[in-house]
From TrEMBL:
InterPro entries: Cytochrome_P460 (IPR032033), Cytochrome_P460_sp (IPR038142)
Residue ranges constituting the Cytochrome P460 domain according to the UniProt record: 44-172
Transmembrane feature ranges: none
Protein name: Cytochrome P460
Length: 177
């Protein structure tokens, strides 16, 4: 082998080792869970769920997504019909920091950096003390591309959601389409 070919093989091997190590060390978000057991893996595929609504504050833009069980309940009139969402209903709320669009002709605000992902799951047996709902917030760190649980457990959203007890603890209505 020529001297150049040997050096080229060493360089290629080093690059592959670095890239392979980075891929191996990347976080699998589906291994993260909050205290009391609500895990990211229980919401696998949430990225493909149907949008229920969007919301915006000065601090965040959010999209609220629901799994098919919850979408079917919304379409049946829950919670306005006095019924509860069935066990298996799930919501994902994705928050981004707002930023001005660099491409839109008007001063349009669009999602910027991912901030956190919140999950809500209806399981009346697993969460009897919180209206049948479990809550989780997973904060996102853009620098490390990782998620960490907020640390308060599956009832982290319960205190806030008690103000909508009459709506089965859910703030977001399913608007007309």
């Amino acid at each position: 082998m020529t001297r150049i070919a040997s050096w080229l093989m060493v360089i290629v091997a080093a690059v592959l080792a670095v890239l392979g190590g980075k891929a191996i060390s990347a976080q699998d978000k589906y291994t993260v869970q909050v205290p009391n057991g609500l895990s990211f893996s229980e919401f696998r595929g949430y990225e493909d769920w149907q949008a229920v609504a969007v919301s915006q504050t000065d601090e965040a833009i959010a999209v609220i997504l629901a799994n098919p069980v919850m979408i079917d309940a919304y379409r049946a009139g829950v919670p306005g019909n006095g019924q509860h969402f069935p066990d298996g209903s799930k919501i994902a709320k994705i928050h981004w920091s707002p930023k001005k669009s660099a491409d839109a002709p008007a001063a349009t605000t669009v999602p910027g950096t991912l901030h956190d992902v919140d999950f809500i799951e209806r399981d009346s047996k697993k969460f009897p003390d919180t209206g049948g709902w479990g809550y989780a917030q997973f904060n996102y760190d853009a620098t490390s591309d990782t998620f960490t649980p907020d640390g308060t457990g599956t009832d982290c959203g319960y205190a806030c959601h008690t103000i909508v007890t009459a709506k089965d603890y859910i703030f977001t209505a399913y608007p007309k389409r």
